[in-house]
């Protein structure tokens, strides 16, 4: 009961036992009964405490068994016997220095046996927050020693104290366990991340590094902790752990732990910016391309994808990535990290990727070399900033001479126009931009590129007609109309006509073209200037005049005397044009006759033409030239007009069966 009374004073936070009269008694009681049993004396019934004293118990608060009971009994009996014999207690400390033999080898932090706690991490703690603080304080007290140990190992001038290192590792494991199994205690790490991250510098102590990484991973789900990590500017130490070493198995475990820790951190824009400046891209790309562990590669790809998704830093990160890898890999990382890893290992030659062993080896070697250089620099100066030179270009041994736009090899694309590109709208936008830029160049090589770009545009719009709906909003139509009169090279108006002709498959595009200034004037200029472009020009005009709102166009046609020129094209005695060209001309003129505002005026102009009288009764867009045979326009001249697709008017069937 006396012990219980003392315990009540201890557990009730009374100052009576802390006075000058009782400090010795307080220390003695705690040493002889252990802090846990003393608290129990003040909190539970005497019977429960007696039951505990007579039981064998091993939990984070108490190691109590037959040996501890015997040791305590022997000590008390010895002190009693000697006191009665001599009148003085032989232990002048009155038990305040007593220590159980089974407790001597145990690491006790915050009154908790750390080894036992790590074996029973789900054991309910009375004060998890306090235990967390005690563990951090213990690690802080070892910081000086750890720094000395780092220097000793680095310089090979001595060895570390194995027992001391063992205790530090146990504390790190306990800290991770208490954070994982007790919500909210991770907040106690705020303000101590420089300490925790500094443990990552112990490269020669891989298991300690892994334990420290696990602690960081366990707190990274708390946004306040993440903010404090960002403020501490210590991310470089975590990134440096990613560097591969000769110990592959240990590397894989550490690397996976680091990647797990980094994943939630990369939701923080400030940390993404810091990661970029500390070379995270180099470390992650090296793992993605060279690691022997597929899971590490997959996680690295996933993390890179997450970084590119950041609104502020994502575009810059993607730009840096594109200096090492084709865009297809970067997009594949977003769609499926697993697919991205498999894709890197394969061999491809398609419109969006040319990839083989030589290209793969070149990327791996370059990244490994750059990563090692960065690591060595950061070892000496963790504040070193990594920045890729603006003129850096990794020249891969594939795709030499290939013209690439939006990650698409144009030569291969026009050879395989049915290929479905991953980002068709982006591809179209860059194609149209490139066409406009190339039209301003004068070199012959640029003309060849312009032809290739134009071909790619028409292939894309033919394969994916829905893209035409987005063309007017891009603002390119007027520019191509203006370039029709470009005289530097015939390839320029030809390209414009081909592109505009493809635009004309969409009504919205047609309406936009009709609204362009000097549209017919520009097209008429091409027809008069380049005989070889008349076919495509007439195809374009035919499409334009098919819609029902053509009054404005017809008015322009009358003013520009386009009608007179079209009639000349029908006159086969002047110039021979293709069958389709004359068919298109007939169709254009017939559509003009339907104009509500100008139809009568067009009719009067056509009635004055002798040529038109031969074609006015043609149905749709088909007719035949004057000839003694009814046939295609490409056949001999006839006096009667017929359908362009019609065969000879002479009965070609034999009048009698073939001879036997």
Automatic annotation (TrEMBL):
One Gene Ontology biological process: receptor-mediated endocytosis
SUPFAM superfamilies (UniProt xref): ARM repeat (SSF48371)
Cellular-component GO terms for this entry: endosome membrane
PANTHER family, per the entry: DNAJ HOMOLOG SUBFAMILY C MEMBER 13 (PTHR36983)
Protein known as: Uncharacterized protein
